[in-house]
């Protein structure tokens, strides 16, 4: 269990970013103070979430060493069968380890912090270390991810972020996506489709009334949110092996998620998919990626 007193705050100009290292290395809030008052650029964590140590109710959390679901928690990799316990009431394993473990503060300045954690081989039979460097600057927020394989064999590796953005009326999302995966009842992908007119993200989609939770392929690492009522825009710019975007917009909620990730859902069980995205990280090697969240005015 953590408490709000365990959070730390980064500051730069008119922006504040509150972190909760002990709660999955999560971001608890990111705000911009304007003349009319503060504006939430990420959906802020509730007091109950902070007190209850529950990363999914934070503003953003890391997905390491894989994102989304592994069917039944089971997969085979280079001749090795791996079986992990399922979690959160799902029949699948979800989102890796990072979001469920405390991270330690390794370095800190007024506007930047490096968080780290280490995993020792268990049901996931590889040891590895991971870091997040979270920085505020003149244009917004940057999160740099790194994973190092500390085992003596290749480790299947992926990562991403799970940010929750406000969705006030009129919110518009634009992203150069090519296809999407239709899900089964347990949110595993089973059929790929071209984008329907309602999800024509390359031309921009008004998110009022749109409900989805799907993986999209062919992403070039760029996406944009427009909040006309706030007069603000947010550009998401991912550098590194981010070829997939998860769009999560639950019905009736005032938030949505644009999750930059390096692989498709259940990629470890999709060896025949040419763009599945699993990376075989050799012993001692490092996988890195950077995600920028840049704020502008409309």
Overall description:
The protein is mainly beta and 298 residues long. It has one domain: Beta-galactosidase, Chain A, domain 5 (Distorted Sandwich), CATH 2.70.98. It has one helix and 26 strands. The chain has a nine-stranded antiparallel sheet, with no helix packed on it. It has a seven-stranded antiparallel sheet with strand order 5-15-24-23-20-17-18, with no helix packed on it. Strands 1-2-3-4 form a four-stranded antiparallel sheet, with no helix packed on it. Strand 2 and strand 3 form a beta hairpin. It starts with 7 loop residues before the first strand and ends with a strand.
Total number of helices: 1
Order of helices and strands: EEEEHEEEEEEEEEEEEEEEEEEEEEE
Question: What structural category arises from helix and sheet content?
Answer: mainly beta
General shape:
globular
Largest sheet: 9 strands, antiparallel
Looking at the overall shape, the CATH architecture is Distorted Sandwich
Number of strands: 26
| Mean pLDDT score | 95
Uncertain residue segments: 1-5
| CATH C-level | Mainly Beta
In what order do the strands lie side by side in the largest sheet?
Answer: 10-11-12-13-26-22-21-16-19
Helix content: under 10%
| Beta-strand content | over 45%
Oligomer designation: single chain
State the separation between the terminal residues, measured CA to CA. 41 Å
GO molecular function, one term: carbohydrate binding
Protein name: Aldose 1-epimerase
